[in-house]
Structures are given as structure tokens and as C-alpha cells.
Write a structure and sequence with these properties.
This protein has helices at about 1-15, 15-20, 55-70, 105-115, 130-135, 170-180, 185-200, 210-220, 225-235, 240-250, 270-275, 320-330, 345-360, 360-364; strands at about 30, 45-50, 75-80, 100, 115-120, 140-145, 160, 255, 260-265, 295-305, 310-315, 330, 335-340. It is an alpha/beta fold. The structure holds guanosine-5'-monophosphate and manganese (II) ion.
Length: about 375
């Protein structure tokens, strides 16, 4: 017994090296999230992070967890790997989130001091861009809470990875309830959790909005929370240029391949500059082509400075996660995924059309 505890401790402390020396030990590391519940009583220094360009679920999960842990007496800092869309700025506590790119020194100091690191809404370190190596090197306790496919469980000490969950925010709600702390759910937590659930379920329309999601919302409502305020903050808060941009793109940059039930949108750097598009302004663009009858796959590629960023959405039995992994160095969920390319916009778009043709049978 003592030996097994010591051996486990040794393995955890030497995680990176072990994976080379004992490759057969992979996938056996991550202990259940519920094992941290009794440990929550002892106050700690905690860092919370999420994927690059955090969306409503990523930011909502990070801040709701921060509000919860702060009430338990922990010292908590949220670090985002990059900047984020302005439509999450309304979330309470967002003004204190550190941007690793623009506040690197401060963020690294926080990470160095952290006893625990929560990784939310992503499951492989390379989703944190410039922070990837730093996270790999940290020797603190790492805890994963995520709902994407194919987690790198070897990199985490504790965690929960559940693809049946609508959102990471739903998993934060579960954590609060299951650890016996439902009384800690206040307005700030409710707003953040609800925002993530709404964002990731496409306002309750995707199949991921299972009955438990509606029960969660009913519970938040019974605690007196105002859902209309969150919808307005998320969706009625853009500037005119973003709507003009969407109109322009749908008219001029959208190609429909009826033989493949597929839509492709390509957005160039000059389009972004012309309409003064900021981080987050392109969110939601991908939903419009899905309203065309019979469309199974929508792909949007945007020419960002350092890479061409892909987004994929599907209906029916087309696996976006597998598609993004196979062709565009990405991943995500069955019906929503993303990826990247270092090719030019024209070349990567051509590669997509080739990939679409290779997948004709699944798209019909
Ligand atoms: P979005 O199109 O909204 O950026 O992303 C859709 C889903 O795919 C999200 O759950 C997101 O976390 C995931 N995703 C987006 N880009 C990538 C990527 O490059 N790699 C992986 N593994 N997942 C991604
Ligand atoms: Mn999510």
C-alpha cells in the first residue's frame, strides 16, 4: 500500500519523463475530479486557464469557477492565453483576467506560484498557443475539466473529461453541486454558467442540450437569476460594422457546393481590415449557412495574421472532429470543430475542396 502510494507520487512528479520511459503507463494517471472535493477545504493559491481566444463557455467556466473557489477562501487568478472577444467583458471578474500575451511576466509569476492549475474547456496544452510550453513545464497539481474529444489525460493529475456534457460551464455547475456547495451559487456564478451553456448549445438548439441542461437552467432561475440580461449582453452588443461585414461576406465570400451539401466561406485579411473586424466579431458567422435547407457541412476559414483558422459545423452524421484532425491539425466536437493551416488562404481553401470531395459519401 505504502509502496503503491510512493510509486504513484514518483510517477506524478516525474510525469514528463515517465511518458518516455514507461509509455505503457499512459492514460492511467488522471484521478477522478471528485477526489479533489475533500481537498477544497484547505485554502490554496490557484490559477485557472482555458483555450486561446476564450469564448463564452471558456470565459464563463473560468470566472464561475473563480467566483466559487474565492468564496471557499482560495486565492484565484484567471489567465487567458490570448485576448478575447469584447462580448464576454460584461462577466463579473473579467477585468481581472490576465492576458498571457500582453501580461506575460505577471502571468508567469502567477503560474509559478500556483499550487493548483485548472485547465478548462480544452484538453491538450497546444490549445493555449504561446503558453503551451509553460504549462507543460509546471510541476503543480493540474486539473482538467473539459467536454472535448480525445483528452491528453496523461498531462493531468485529476479531472473530468465528458463529451456528453453540453459545455464546460455545465461541468462547473456539476462540480459546485456535487461537492455540496449549491448555496454558493450567486448572481455572478449563474450569469457566467448560463452564458457558457447558451454559447455552446447554440441557445439550446444543438443535440448537446440534454434534459439536464434545462434542469440546470431551471435551478439557476429558481435562485432568481435574470437570463434575458445574459442573452442581450452576448448577442445584442455589437457595432454596425460587424453586421455590414456579415452581409458582405454572405454575399461575396460564400460558395455553396450542392453536390456535397457543403458551404465554404473564405475571409481574407483585407476583408477584416476593411470592416475593422475585432476578435469575436466573426463568431456566429458560421451559423448563417446552416439555415440553407439540406446543408450538412459548413466550413469557414479566416486569414489571421499567423495562420489560417478553420471552423467546421455539421448536421447529421458527419464527424467534424475527425475531419478537422485529419486535414487541418485541429479537433473539437462531433458537430463543431476547428483547425488551422499555415498555407495561404487560396491553398488551404483548395485543400478543403479536395478533402470535401474525398468525403463525398459521408456528405450525401
Ligand atoms: P470554433 O469554430 O467555435 O472556434 O470551435 C468549435 C469547437 O472546436 C470548439 O469547441 C473549440 O474548442 C474546438 N476547436 C477550435 N479550434 C480547434 C483546434 O485548432 N484544435 C482543437 N483540438 N479544437 C479546436
Ligand atoms: Mn466548451
Amino acid at each position: 500500500m505504502v509502496y503503491s502510494v510512493l510509486f504513484r507520487k514518483y510517477l506524478t512528479e516525474n510525469r514528463n519523463r515517465n511518458q518516455e520511459v514507461f509509455p505503457y503507463l499512459r492514460s492511467h494517471f488522471m484521478k477522478p475530479l471528485s477526489e479533489i472535493f475533500p481537498l477544497l477545504k484547505q485554502s490554496r493559491t490557484i490559477a485557472i486557464t482555458t483555450h486561446q481566444k476564450p469564448d463564452a463557455d471558456a470565459m464563463g467556466a473560468s470566472l464561475s469557477l473563480k467566483h466559487f473557489l474565492t468564496q471557499l477562501g482560495h486565492k484565484v487568478t484567471v489567465i487567458s492565453p490570448t485576448n478575447w472577444a469584447s462580448w464576454v467583458n460584461w462577466m463579473q471578474g473579467c477585468e481581472e483576467v490576465l492576458d498571457f500575451e500582453s501580461d506575460k511576466l505577471k502571468a508567469e509569476t502567477v503560474l509559478n506560484k500556483a499550487e493548483w492549475l485548472f485547465c478548462l474547456d480544452f484538453n491538450v496544452f497546444n490549445r493555449t498557443k504561446g503558453m503551451t510550453e509553460k504549462l507543460r513545464q509546471l510541476s503543480c497539481t493540474k486539473i482538467l475539466i473539459d467536454h472535448h474529444k480525445e483528452p491528453d489525460t496523461d498531462s493531468f493529475d485529476y479531472g473530468k473529461s465528458d463529451i456528453t456534457k453540453s459545455s464546460t460551464c455545465e461541468m462547473i455547475y456539476d462540480l459546485i453541486i456535487e461537492s455540496g456547495n449549491g448555496d454558493k451559487i450567486n448572481e455572478a456564478i449563474s450569469e457566467c454558467i448560463y452564458a457558457g451553456v447558451v454559447g455552446d448549445t447554440g441557445s439550446f438548439r444543438f443535440p448537446s442540450a440534454h434534459s439536464g441542461v434545462h434542469t440546470l437552467v431551471a435551478d439557476l432561475k429558481s435562485r432568481g437569476f435574470n437570463h434575458a440580461k445574459v442573452h442581450e449582453a452576448l448577442y445584442d452588443n455589437f457595432l454596425e460594422n460587424r453586421l455590414r461585414f456579415i452581409g458582405f461576406v454572405l454575399l461575396n465570400r460564400m460558395e455553396v457546393f450542392y453536390d456535397y451539401n457543403t458551404v465554404l466561406i473564405t475571409v481574407s485579411k483585407s476583408d477584416l481590415l476593411r470592416f475593422e473586424i475585432k476578435t469575436g466579431d466573426t463568431e456566429g458567422l458560421i451559423n448563417f449557412p446552416q439555415t440553407i435547407k439540406g446543408i450538412k457541412l459548413v466550413a469557414v476559414v479566416i486569414d489571421r495574421d499567423e495562420e489560417r483558422k478553420w471552423s467546421f459545423r455539421s448536421k447529421g452524421d458527419f464527424d467534424c472532429n475527425a475531419f478537422a484532425r485529419k486535414y487541418f491539425e485541429g479537433g473539437g466536437h462531433f458537430a463543431a470543430s476547428g483547425g488551422r493551416s499555415s498555407d495561404s488562404l487560396e491553398v488551404t481553401a483548395k485543400k478543403f475542396i479536395q478533402a470535401m470531395k474525398e468525403n463525398k459519401s459521408q456528405l450525401q
